[in-house]
What does this fold into?
Amino acid sequence: MRLHQTIIPPKAVPDSPLARRFLTDALAWQSSHDPAALEALLRSPCSGIPHDVAAAYATFARRGGSLLEAIEHERLALPADEREAVLRFAAKLRAIERLPSEDAAAIGEAIASAFLGTVRQPPSADTPVDPAPIKLGAGEKREAGGGVRSRVAHFSASSLNAFAECERKWYYRYACGAIDDPGSSAATYGTAIHLALEDFHQEFARPSPGEETVMRARIVDDVRWAFERNRADFETPVEFELQVRRAQRTAQRYVDWLVERARTAPFEVIGRELPVRLEVNGHDLMGFVDRLDRDLRSGAVAVIDYKTGAIATSAAEYREKVRSFRDFQLPFYYWACSASGDKVAWLALVPLKDATLDVRPVVMEVVAGAAPVARRDAPSGSISIDELERAKRRMIALCDRIASGTLAYFAATRDPQACTYCAYALACTARPPATGSQFDR
Ligand code: SF4
It folds into this structure.
């Protein structure tokens, strides 16, 4: 028989639905250790924990592991008052957990006494004051500081980009893995459209203007199929339908570009979602190239990267990002494909974000000597092998630094824009003020 089904709520429980709900969940958890009951306790106003902190810990616990242990090990960096609130919550539950389960009435009284004096909503005049708040023990002795290294043995261009953008973000994602990005419809859109184009080019490895009608019909099916496979990751059916329509319009514009390109420079798709690897200075860099094309006239290879988020809008802008070591994606692909024996002549970013715009790739020709300077807004330009070589040297230096295990401090970015969609903003106490706040000072 389940304990919470037999107990009569103690007199100490304030007569509010909130408090009775909390008591029921607490009894359920005490008798069964049901994680859902524990999460309900955490999120209740009776827990004394701010809602956003509760949500962060709930998300953390759902991704594996014990919620109480996560709190006790202080997996989230919190301001002092919030830290104390979560630790107090865990300590109280631990004390209740230790009570003998036969004495249901005593358990009910203990829960009411420990928690229900701290109900913040709705306030009640007869809410009893917690008569015996649980005292926290002496703090653990601080461990000696030490270096940190990545949890994964290999590197990717994304991880190096993250480190270059904000070392602290890299630390949260690759060293702690504390909170995973829960994903978004934008991210799922990207996954689905990559999948659709991978399927599409399996059938159309050599797009030709003569097959335009067939390609247009086929890509409609490929998009629908790819999105159906990811349907569960969209929050609502409406969101799903909107994103499918957006992808269908983008896909037709993509075919426009394929037909035009096949007419002017026939090519063959020789790789789709191609795994690539580069070994440098004892480090493993791994990734996937979205598409690899071979020019049918010259035999030269083009590395194609699909982009469904914001990207550089001109070749000069992307080249500047490479030169200032803010983006390693295409340099990494260049060196990985070259190491496999491909003669890479072009690097291209294909924008697939905006369904209202034509697909107008940013293309850079790889040149041996000094690369000429392109017009600032021109989609095509060039980049020199020297510049790519410098990017490679910087990648190696970053890998050396991260793999050394001596990094003990991870600086936060100074660019507030980097924080806008950062999944770790809640835990990060070092983020720079938003641009608006700077003007307010
Ligand atoms: S919130 Fe900003 S400073 Fe903090 S980890 Fe994220 S990007 Fe870095």
